[in-house]
Amino acid sequence: MKSVVAHFSTPLITGARFFSPTCLIQRQSISTVRCRKSSSSLTVMASSSAQSSSQAVSPGSAETDVFKMIQAHEAKAARLSRVEEIRTVLNGSVCGMLSTFSQKYEGYPSGSMVDFACDADGSPILAVSSLAVHTKNLLANPKCSLLVARDPEDRTGLRITLHGDAVLVSDNDQAAVRSAYLAKHPNAFWVDFGDFSFMRIEPKVVRFVSGVATAFLGSGEFSKEEYQTAKVDPIAQFAKPVTSHMNKDHEEDTIAIVHHATSIPVESALMLDLDSLGFNVKATLQGNTFKIRVPFPRRAQDRKDVKILIVEMLQAAKSVSN
Question: How far apart are CA 294 and CA 278, in angstroms?
Answer without folding.
Answer: 6
